[in-house]
Amino acid sequence: MPTLSRRSLTLAVCAAVVAVLLVVAAFAPLPVTIVEPGLTANVLGTDKGTQIITISGTPVRATSGQLRLVTIAATRPDASVHFVDVARAWFRTNEAAMPRDSVYPHGGSVQANDKANLKEMADSQAAATGAALGHLGLSPSKVTVQLHLADVGGPSAGLLFTLGIIDKIQGDGHGADLTGGRVIAGTGTIDAHGTVGAVGGVPLKEQAARNDGATVFLVPRAECSDATAQLPGGLRLIPVETLDGTLAALADLRAGRQTPTC
């Protein structure tokens, strides 16, 4: 029986070690999260039978069209994600693998992340209310805005909440809806001064928006590159940077004029 040379034996041992390492790598949990298009919600409507935006202290108006906030859904921070999950997401347009700490920056605790997301949502709602009332010249001591939306956290709905409050109170200021009767979706943080900020996950949010009937998508201008990479057919992008700029773009859209583009 022939014997293996020292070189052949070394190669065989190395190959076996590599094979074991590959098997271990394939089944070892990775510090990533799989994300996909999440739910959308029309802020001018209801959530589980409750108005998402409730306003008292000033007259409100009936609205048509929709202003849909969009979300992404992610595996929980304590879920095990393996190489096979990442490989599958790589070949799918409706999934993506993202570093876990970029999706869950508050660590691996479900409770800690849920608490942080709820606080970010509360802060976002306060900023959205401040931006809307400031734009309308209304005092928060006289006008009360309550925002209700279950199962959604984080700050990325700020811009849409602001637009929803303005639409319910004033519309375009001349009796027309901000939407012009369209289904408009969008994402972006907002501060009390009306500055729109980036949020992440835009390609998947665009898919969620298009799935729920949106034809226009408001995106922070800083995320134009991501927004155009996998833009669904039939969805028109409008990049925005400020609340005033967003309202001006929507006015141009209603009037059939050219709107900003990426």
UniProtKB/TrEMBL annotation:
Please name the InterPro entries in this protein's record.
Ribosomal_Su5_D2-typ_SF, Ribsml_uS5_D2-typ_fold_subgr
Q: What is this protein called?
A: PDZ domain-containing protein
Record organism:
Actinacidiphila paucisporea
